[in-house]
Structure formats: C-alpha cells, structure tokens
Amino acid sequence: MQENPEQRAVADKILAAIEKRYGFVPIVNQVMSERPDLFIPMANLGKAVFEGEGDLEQKTRYLCAVSAAASSGAEYCLSVQMKHAVEAGATRDEVLEAIVIGCQISMTRSQSYALRRYAEQFDIELKE
C-alpha cells in the first residue's frame, strides 16, 4: 500500500506529541504508525478516551485503565497506566484498589465459565 504523505506527517506529529507527553512511544504506537491510515484513528480515539471531555476526571480514567489492564493481563499497559494514574494524582492505595478490582473481575469471569462447564459435566442443576 502506498503511503499518503499527508497522513505520514500527521502520524509523525502524533508520535512526537506522545513522546513529549510521556517520555517514550509505546511499542503499539510505533508499530501501528507504520500504517498511518489505521494509526491516526486509533491514536485519536485513545486521546479522546484518556484526555477528552467527559464526566470522569483524568485520574479516574487512568484508574479504570489500570483495572482493565489488570483484568486482561496486559502487563505493559498496566505499567504505563499506573504511571499515568499516579501522574494524574492517584495514590498508591487507589492504584492497588483498581488492580484488585480488575483481578476480581478477571477471576469471577473465569469462575463463571469454568463452573458452568463443571456443572454441565457433573449434572448439577442450576437456577438461572
């Protein structure tokens, strides 16, 4: 696919802004920027989610991201989002609570699936 020079310039500008704001460019952004047509919308969505206007303050948004990263096992995202949460004013205890919430959801998701299969296997009657 031939690259659009205008999109390349926009992608490079986004990468520079990410590096300036965070001190580095995440690998996901580095790789995705190889395709500016895909990277630009993704980067704009990320900016809107974490920095856009809304009812949640930025600290809360980053704590949600910490919880989601913990739940999904996204170790690199977890490290980055914890750093951002702290920079946005989250305390050590708030970060820990967000992690524990994410882990609890992950565990109950696994239990829900596994225990349903277990009940089927062993003919345990369930009330839905």
Strand content: under 5%
Radius of gyration using CA atoms only: 19 Å
What structural class do the secondary elements suggest? mainly alpha
Count of helical segments?
6
Order of helices and strands: HHHHHH
Mean pLDDT: 95
* Biggest β-sheet description: none
CATH superfamily of the largest domain: AhpD-like
Uncertain residue ranges: none
Please name the CATH topology of the largest domain.
AhpD-like
Would you kindly provide a written description of the structure presented here, covering whatever features stand out?
The chain folds into two domains: 1-53, Single alpha-helices involved in coiled-coils or other helix-helix interfaces (Up-down Bundle), CATH 1.20.5; 54-128, AhpD-like, CATH 1.20.1290.10. 77% of the residues lie in helices and 0% in strands. The chain has helices at residues 5-22, 27-32, 36-51, 58-72, 75-87, 92-121. Helix 1 runs parallel beside helix 3, helix 4 (58-72) runs antiparallel to helix 5 and helix 4 (58-72) packs parallel to helix 6 (92-121). The model has no long low-confidence stretch (mean pLDDT 95).
Label this structure with key terms:
128 residues, mainly alpha, Single alpha-helices involved in coiled-coils or other helix-helix interfaces
How is the topology of this model organized?
Blueprint: H1 5-22, H2 27-32, H3 36-51, H4 58-72, H5 75-87, H6 92-121
Helix pairs in contact: 1-3, 4-5, 4-6
Summarize this entry quickly.
The chain has about 130 residues and is mainly alpha-helical.
